[in-house]
Amino acid sequence: MTTGAEQEGKRRGRRPAGADTKTALIEAARAVFTEQGYEGATVRTIARRAGVDPAMVNHWFGGKEGLFAKSVLQLPIDPSTIVSQLLEGDLDTIGERVVRTFLTVWDSTGGGHFAALVRSVASHQLAVEGLRDLFLKQIFGRIVAKVGVDNGLFRANLVASQLIGMGMVRYVTQFEPLKNTDIETVVAAVGPTIQRYFTGEITAPQPHGSA
Amino acid sequence: MTTGAEQEGKRRGRRPAGADTKTALIEAARAVFTEQGYEGATVRTIARRAGVDPAMVNHWFGGKEGLFAKSVLQLPIDPSTIVSQLLEGDLDTIGERVVRTFLTVWDSTGGGHFAALVRSVASHQLAVEGLRDLFLKQIFGRIVAKVGVDNGLFRANLVASQLIGMGMVRYVTQFEPLKNTDIETVVAAVGPTIQRYFTGEITAPQPHGSA
DNA sequence: CCATTAATTCATCACGTGTTGAAAAGTTTG
DNA sequence: CAAACTTTTCAACACGTGATGAATTAATGG
């Protein structure tokens, strides 16, 4: 007890049992990447948080990059499922449903996944394309196509802007009171916006400099 | 071409004339911070881009942090002026005016300032607070206070969410077609959203878990 | 119960970082 | 023109990074 060298947690070799190092590393990585971004997060910090040796990152994931891919870029949703669920209900209430689903999905992990994704956009071009692909092509692009209105891509852009902004404010910058506002309250406030972007009157986009 | 040692651009001592090193560094810094984020950007990269020696960063700005403050955190706007201008017109069209002003201000630097701010949010807690202070307290908070509606802070949050999201999509992830859409077209599409957040009916926020 | 395999730790490597101090060369001042 | 000052380059430092390989210990299988 005097020097602490007798603590058994530091002995060498294989650990007694179970002790799922892989999972512990993924969870610690998600937390640290979320707080620090890709460059700011260090392998040593992640390993310390997970209570294991930094070398385990290489052993299990082949390096920092691999751990990043298996933690942050692993989304908590299946886009196809989400889209077909959203398209089942009435078209007049799709705005509300989209907002409710968006918040439910990202709230389920405490916003960590969303924040991590946005934070990694900073230093990783890979993440930018991931975000674009996820929101535009796989989700809102598909919905707009099914709904069958004009200016589909422009509408998808508008929807993405409001929802990404909502995620920024709720999960990343964490403004009060939106950070802790009940989902249904937000649905009532933002739902009509999304509804209008989907089915309301939207004039066609003009390229720059034709005002 | 063999050794390249004869190029005169590498001579020591004070440069011939003018050669505004400070400005060159600030501009290079803004570009590199925008592309790489705070941690990802290195002093050496910035200096090379500006065509000067890395040591100049310390000489003129006292270090990387100082250069960051003088480039990225130096906003292209004066909040007070903006706010009083926005409050001059009719209250029924404040939504349009806010969107138009937002886009005009950030477009003026090609979106670089906004992207840099968001990118630095990733690794810099300082930038998070800067963003929160700028949008909530200094701009939308003041407007909401002057307008004098209920749930002021909640409304300010909603406005911020839509505009920050617009900036994300237009300047950071650069989705098409929003990236290149004419300002007035965007005003027509998003103006009503902001108008409703300011003066429409918005139910009061409920804390989590009371659905 | 011994040999093999898997999991973990440790010491260390090569490298890139931000920063520093001294030397060199131009500019300004008397 | 010479002294003082300012601007710039260069070499180097101390440090932290991600990664590697050998040593060590537990689990496993015949």
From TrEMBL, chains A, B:
Question: Can you give the residue ranges of the HTH tetR-type domain?
Answer: 19-79
Annotated source species: Kibdelosporangium persicum
Q: Name one Pfam family in it.
A: TetR_N
Tell me the first and last residues of the signal peptide. Answer: none
**Renumbered residue ranges of the record's region Disordered:** 1-20
DNA-binding region positions on the chain: 42-61
InterPro entries membership: Homeodomain-like_sf, HTH-type_TetR-like_transc_reg, HTH_TetR, Tet_transcr_reg_TetR-rel_C_sf, TetR_C_16
Q: What is this protein called?
A: HTH-type transcriptional repressor AcnR
